[in-house]
Design brief:
heterodimer; A: alpha+beta; five-stranded mixed sheet; four-stranded antiparallel sheet; about 30% helix; B: alpha+beta; transport (chain B); Roadblock/LAMTOR2_dom (chain B); dynein (chain B)
């Protein structure tokens, strides 16, 4: 403000401004000044602190005009600690001003010349409180005075040499070092380290006091050297500073200018601080103590002097002098101008071409380059193409070579080479596999063995279900249990009276009144039987036909063979299963089932109206729809041809052969099971007739029975019965067809019974009769169980079950319906079929025989072969003779208190015979999945499980199943992981047990191990026999020897005696 | 039990003891697999080469003898 206002006065406001704000860059002004500074370099030290830029600019503008035109200078030389107070008024004249540049900003105009002091005071006024204005006005006056006095002082300085006192030589003309004696310090209260310290080094002393002191002490006064300064000092108080560091050479110094004093007391701050301070000052709180004195530091060169050097203009260039001269006489002569060519004459013109002046090489130090980043913008657009979905298909066929090409490549040399090179590698690889399985997992096999042998759980047979029926099975013994071969969870059982044979005979009349049934159970319904087969008598044994599970053959108590056809009810049994399988299916099937039931009830009503004589119990039954259907048998054998007593065992002959009347085996064209074999412990009745007439009548009676063999001897009649019978279910060519028709008329079948076996009716007679005659006597064996060595191919249960589940399977025709009369065509004789069988008898014998009929040479009558071997092993009737499902020649027999395992071909006896146990064995069965395992039922309701590989001498486990005697055991494979064991007992309860996996899962090489075991046993048996023979031989030899010895001894004695006698004689 | 097959490089059977569809299937798939196996072996070591490939499966073992142009594939039912 002030500068602007004053600028016109100095004439170069722009110059001033440029100088003030410029950074020393070359400018016209400085050049101008450089020209002015031709007289020599000037040094100007402006030690001031800026209080405001504007007044400063004004100030130095003024200063420049006044001082010796300072050249451009950087402010770096001026340490910030510098004070304007250092600059005594007027000192700038004495000092050599160096430069005025931005440094002026810091410069406190204190050093300003007289003319400037006005501005200064104005500046001060503007920046300081108004309260100081009177002071400054006084100052102004004093400034004027000082201006005058400085002139005078100059003169005086010359005279008095006062220059030495002040610090003018170092640029601080206002500072006067003083030595204060302790006396002076006491007087002015500025004792060192008490009143003044290094930090608080200022002491204001009143001018009057100093003057007083000067007066009183005169020349002794410490102020004497600066007496003049004090006297001339414009202010009231003088500032004395304690110079602890002896900066100026003495312990104190006097500040001889008011402005410097101000600067000392109020150290320059930033503009803001200053404003704050000014505010504070406005409030009248001028805090003198806030002033912090800074220590002046010696000037340190930071390179600015070089700049100064560079900036200073020096007259390097030698000045060019031109001298023009002309003859005196030519002065004022008329001038004649002519044209001529400049190039014609030499020196007619002077050319001043531009050239690179080596003296001036100005480097381009700075360049302003502006770059602005602008993103590139591009417009683009796309449009997607919509493709229509199209149906497309490709089909390709594999590339194949034509025959010629193939021939060519096959005959090519390359292929031959290839084959020869590859041949060896491939052969090695193939051989490796042939030799051994390199990838066999020994570890796995080891683990498998461990699991199979380890006792993991104690429960070997887990109770799954049990069935009993109060109506049919009360107080009855279950004689036989058979699983339905194909349908899941269907099991059939037959029941008999619990009485013994004797009782039975006595109660035979009553027995007829009782229901004799075969009951079908399903897993899905443990309470209601699914199907009931009606029987003429108690059934002791029955078998499903292997060809068609709907055909069942049973052996009756009275010796008849009975056949059933349950094909009508197959669906019902299927449904019983499907109830558990799925609801949807069962709904449909239930409908059909109910229809079936309705049909059944219709049948029964018809039966009721007809009042068939043979079914009294049937009549009494109140049949409802929910009741299981009763199925009547469709054929029975004629009583004449049948067994005379209970049939204890029945078997279907395998479907791949048939036998004729002589026991010769032929191929079976139909490939369905058409022949049965039964056995019965028919006894030999010996009746002794006292009365001849009775005997005759009896003989007459039995005349018609061809089976009866009669012999008369002392009025005794022995009647023999056929023991093992073979039956054919086909229409047999009977000699008297009339009788067949007649019989048919008599025994009219009730309706509703399938006519599958109508042709048999009651005229059904056995095909072969085999008598098991004892070789030595005329007695015969009484077989209970028979086991043919030629076995059925085992059911493929799963496959069959699947096929049965299919609807077409249900609709398939009954194979037996197609059954036809055997043709006359000669059938092929099968020599490979074994005719042998094992028979277990009532007396505990095991007989190995052949069913072939031999023609007796004497009588010409067919006579069955005599049993080839017989062994008495069991102490009671044999109840089980069963071939192993894994070995064709291994047979298990159970009876009495022990069991035995036989091998066909080993004639010396059983290969394994168990020791007798405390409990009677009542039944036995091989395991279907483990070759070395079989189950044996005992009469105390326990089941022994034998594992030959684990413990050959005792049962590996036993488990109690029932309180009463076990009557029958039948295992069944429901699925590869599930096996059931049906166990029936004497009290009419059928237990279904689940066989634990340990007992059902066979290890990989179990069969081989069992076979090995059996073979070892055979060897052992042979060795044992040999040993026995050897022993017997030895014994006889020994005996002979002893005898020989005896005789020899006797003769010796004799000779001795003789000798002695002789001696005596001598 | 072994079955023999001969194949051309590109997967076209030259001679086979199997039926046609099985042959084509085996040829196509095993040709690719063998090429892949060969490239694997050669990638690992460029100087190496596949000489024989045996695939052991549950049912049988497939043995492949590769050469420049032909493949010999043998399917063996081991341990029988």
């Amino acid at each position: 403000m002030a500068a602007r206002g004053r600028a016109p006065r100095y004439g170069h406001p722009s110059a001033a401004r440029t100088a003030g704000t410029g950074t020393g860059a070359p400018c016209p002004r400085s050049q101008e000044r450089g020209a002015a500074a031709y007289y020599g370099p000037h040094d100007a030290l402006l030690l001031a602190r800026p209080r405001g830029s504007k007044p400063l600019r004004a100030r130095h503008a003024g200063m420049r005009s006044f001082s010796a035109r300072p050249r451009g200078i950087t402010n770096s030389d001026f340490r910030p600690r510098g004070r304007s107070a250092d600059w005594p008024p007027g000192a700038s004249i004495l000092a050599r001003p160096v430069a005025v540049t931005t440094a002026e900003r810091q410069g406190r105009g204190g050093a300003g010349p007289r003319r400037e002091s006005e501005n200064m005071s104005e500046n001060l006024r503007s920046s300081k409180t108004t309260s100081k204005s009177p002071k400054t006005s006084a100052k102004k006056q004093k400034g004027d005075k000082a201006k005058q006095s400085s002139k005078g002082k100059r003169k005086q300085l010359d005279k008095k040499d006062e220059v030495d006192l002040s610090m003018e030589r170092i640029g601080h003309p206002e500072i006067f070092p003083l030595v204060f004696t302790t006396k002076t310090q006491e007087i002015f209260n500025c004792r060192v380290d008490e009143d003044v310290t290094e930090e608080n080094c200022f002491k204001l002393i009143k001018k009057e006091d100093i003057i007083q002191d000067l007066k009183t002490r005169a020349a002794i006064s410490d102020f004497y050297p600066v007496k003049r300064v004090v006297l001339e000092y414009p202010g009231e108080e003088l500032l004395v500073v304690f110079d602890a560091n002896f900066q100026y050479g003495q312990n104190f110094y006097l500040v001889a200018s008011e402005e410097a004093k101000e600067n000392f007391l109020k150290p320059p701050d930033t503009a803001e601080e200053k404003e704050e301070k000014s505010e504070e000052e406005k409030e009248g709180t001028l805090d003198v103590h806030a002033y912090k004195r800074s220590v002046r530091k010696p000037w340190v060169s930071l390179g600015s002097e070089k700049e100064v050097e560079e900036e200073s203009v020096k007259g390097y260039v030698t000045k060019i002098k031109y001298m023009f001269s002309r003859a005196r006489r030519k002065f004022g002569a008329p001038i004649r101008f002519t044209d001529r060519n400049a190039s014609h004459v030499k020196d007619s013109y002077v050319e001043c071409t531009s050239y690179q002046d080596t003296t001036f090489s100005i480097k381009l130090l700075e360049r302003d380059v502006g770059v602005q980043m602008v993103p590139k913008v591009k417009e683009a657009s796309t449009q997607t193409k919509w493709t229509y979905p199209k149906n497309a298909a490709t089909q390709y066929s594999p590339r194949q070579l034509s025959n010629e090409e193939m021939e060519e490549s096959l005959s090519s040399e390359k292929l031959k080479e290839f084959l020869t090179s590859v041949h060896l590698r491939m052969e090695i690889a193939l051989q490796q596999n042939e030799i051994m399985n390199a990838f066999f997992d020994d570890w796995k096999a080891l683990a498998e063995d461990e699991t199979s042998s380890g006792d993991k759980s104690d429960v070997y047979l887990k109770a799954y279900q049990s069935f009993t029926d109060p109506q049919y099975l009360k107080d009855r013994s279950i004689s036989c249990v058979r699983w339905h071969p194909t349908i899941y969870g269907i099991i059939a059982e037959s029941a008999t009276q619990q009485h013994s044979d004797e009782e039975r005979i006595n109660l035979s009349d009553k027995l007829l009144l009782q229901d004799s049934v075969i009951i079908f159970w399903s897993f899905s319904d443990p309470i209601h039987p699914q199907l009931i087969l009606q029987c003429p008598h108690d059934i002791y044994c029955f078998q499903f036909s292997p060809s068609d599970p709907n055909i069942i053959a049973g052996g009756c108590f009275n010796g008849q063979v009975v056949l059933w056809d349950i094909s009508k009810h197959e669906e019902r049994l299927q449904n019983a299963k499907s109830i558990t399988v799925g609801v949807k299916k069962s709904v449909v099937n239930m409908d059909s089932a109910s229809v079936l039931n309705l049909l059944e009830s219709n049948d029964t009503s018809e039966v009721k109206t007809r009042k068939v004589r043979i079914q009294p119990s049937y009549m009494e039954d109140d049949e409802s729809v929910t009741e299981p259907p009763l199925v009547r048998y469709c054929a029975t054998s004629s009583t004449e041809g049948s067994h005379k007593t209970v049939i204890t065992d029945i078997h279907w002959l395998p479907d791949h052969f048939e036998v004729n009347r002589t026991g010769t085996t032929f191929e079976n064209r139909a490939e369905i099971c058409i022949q049965l074999v039964t056995c019965s412990p028919d006894w030999v009745s010996i009746a002794k007739f006292e009365d001849e007439s009775v005997k005759k009548t009896f003989l007459k009676c039995i005349e018609n029975c061809p089976d009866f063999k009669t012999e008369t001897e002392d009025n005794t009649i022995q009647s023999f019965c056929s023991l093992i019978l073979f039956w054919d279910i086909r229409v047999t060519k009977l000699p008297g067809k009339l009788s067949f028709e007649k019989e048919k008329n008599i025994f009219d079948m009730p309706p509703g019974v399938p006519d599958t076996f109508k042709h048999l009716a009651l005229s059904w007679k056995p095909l072969i009769k085999i008598n098991l005659c004892k070789s030595d006597t005329e007695m015969e064996y009484s077989p209970i169980k028979i086991c043919l060595l030629e076995q059925h191919h085992h059911y493929k249960i799963l496959d069959k079950a699947q096929s049965l589940n299919k609807p077409q399977a249900l609709a398939r025709e009954n194979p037996y319906a197609k059954m036809s009369v055997p043709s006359n065509k000669p059938l092929k004789v099968l020599e490979s079929i074994s005719n042998n069988f094992f028979v277990g008898t009532k007396d505990g014998e095991i007989i190995y025989s052949d069913w072939k009929i031999k023609i007796d040479s004497d009588s010409g009558k067919p006579v069955s072969k005599k049993p080839s071997h017989k062994y008495i092993i069991h102490d009671e009737a044999v109840n089980t003779v069963q071939i192993s499902p894994f070995f064709k020649d291994i047979v298990l027999s159970v009876g009495g208190w022990n069991f035995a395992i036989w091998k066909e071909g080993v004639t010396d006896g059983p290969i394994l015979e168990s020791s007798c146990t405390a409990q009677r064995y009542t039944t036995g069965h091989w395991s279907l999945t483990r070759p070395g395992v079989f189950f044996i039922g005992r009469d105390d309701g326990n089941i022994d499980i034998w594992d030959l590989l684990k413990k050959p001498h005792e049962p590996s486990h036993f488990q109690n199943i029932s309180k009463s005697m076990i009557t029958c055991i039948s295992p069944w494979i429901a699925s590869p992981k599930q096996q059931f064991l049906a166990v029936s007992d004497d009290s009419g309860v059928l237990h279904v047990l689940e066989i634990c996996p340990i007992l059902s899962q066979s290890s990989s090489n179990e069969q081989a191990n069992v076979l090995d075991y059996f073979e070892r046993e055979v060897k052992y048996l042979k060795n044992y026999e040999k040993y026995q023979e050897f022993q017997a031989k030895e014994r006889t030899e020994k005996e002979l020897e002893t005898q020989m010895e005896k005789t020899s001894a006797a003769t010796k004695q004799k000779t001795k005696r003789d000798g002695g006698a002789r001696k005596c004689r001598l | 039990m072994t079955e023999l097959e001969n194949y051309l490089f590109s997967g076209i059977p030259i001679r086979t003891t199997l039926d046609n569809s099985t042959t084509v299937q085996y040829a196509g798939l095993l040709c690719q697999l063998t090429m892949k196996a060969r490239s694997t072996v050669r990638d690992i070591d460029p100087q190496n080469d596949l000489t024989f490939l045996r695939i052991r499966s549950k049912k049988h073992e497939i043995m492949v003898a590769p050469d420049k142009e032909y493949l010999l594939i043998v399917i063996q039912n081991p341990c029988e």
